[in-house]
Design brief:
The structure is a single chain. By secondary structure, this protein is an alpha/beta fold. It has two domains: 116 residues, 3-Layer(aba) Sandwich (Rossmann fold); 116 residues, Dihydrodipicolinate Reductase, domain 2. Helix content is 32%, strand content 28%. It is built from nine helices and 13 strands. A six-stranded parallel beta sheet has the order 3-2-1-4-5-6, sandwiched between helices. Strands 8-9-7-10-11 form a five-stranded mixed beta sheet. The relative contact order is 0.16.
Length: 266
């Protein structure tokens, strides 16, 4: 076995904790710690005893080779550029944050300056490789539909459109571009951004967001048509029991991204 990959994690919520728990005993990975907000170090350190919890990169006793962003859009804005400028590769599931054009440019410039890479985990959806391939031959139309139980939309702009507590049938509360969805729903529309960036872009990808009292899972559907033919994809993802806004599959995708990063064959 070669040198272990030193990995740090941003965020220690449901997704960050899941990722840590699945990496701590990985023979190819050395989990070096959590990067968190100042004043939160003690709480973060309790997730995996014995590893660092720091508010700045310089406080880590072992320098990370790769940092996994599981902390959301705000964390990517705060930490992302500095990480990349220091030459450290960064994997993120906060893909919707790239709908902010200024942030996207800042991250790209930082990656160029540090000769580092920003890796986009697939999150709660699949078929992104197919979408990328479709673009080679020409894409005519693509739409992403995100369907969640009403509780999964609590704390989002959906509350201003629908009575989520008394919804009796499925209702669309957003229809627009992937960029608009990602900006308006920063905690809910990372999948829409992932689909868009694999395909024709944030402004050319159509998105519908649906609250449906008849479902218990977070459902992601993609339809695409082009020179290749027609594609339909659907995944029903279980949310974390204590966090209906986050999908377990999103956390699993980050673990997979990290393991592929350090694999000889992937």
């Amino acid at each position: 076995m070669g040198k272990k990959l030193n990995v740090a994690i941003i965020g220690f919520g449901a997704i960050g904790a899941y990722v840590a728990e699945n990496l701590v005993d990985d023979e190819a990975i050395n989990l070096v710690g959590f990067l968190c907000r100042e004043g939160r170090e003690e709480i973060a350190a309790q997730i995996v005893p014995g590893i660092d919890a720091a508010s700045t990169l310089s406080d880590f006793s072992i320098a990370p080779d790769l940092i996994a962003d599981c902390g959301g859009h705000a964390a990517l804005r705060v930490h992302g550029p500095a990480i990349l400028r220091q030459g450290i590769d960064l994997a993120t599931i906060s893909i919707g944050a790239l709908a902010d054009a200024d942030l996207a440019v800042e991250l790209e410039n930082a990656a160029l300056a540090g000769n580092a890479r920003l890796l986009l985990a697939s999150g709660s959806v699949g078929a992104l490789d197919i979408i990328s391939a479709i673009m080679i031959g020409g894409l005519d139309e693509i739409v992403y539909r995100g369907r969640k139980p009403p509780a999964g939309w609590k704390g989002s702009p959906a509350e201003q459109v629908l009575d989520l507590d008394n919804l009796s049938e499925a209702a669309i509360h957003f229809a627009g571009s992937a960029r608009e969805a990602a900006l308006q729903y920063p905690k809910n529309a990372n999948v829409a951004a992932a689909v868009a960036l694999a395909g024709p872009g944030l402004d050319a990808t159509r998105v519908e967001l649906i609250a449906d009292p008849a479902v218990t899972r977070n459902i992601h559907e993609i339809e695409a048509m082009g020179a290749f033919g027609k594609m339909q994809f659907r995944v029903e993802a279980n949310p974390f029991p204590d966090n209906p806004k986050s999908s377990m599959l999103a956390a699993m995708s980050m673990v997979s991204t990290i393991r592929k990063y350090c694999a000889l064959v992937a």
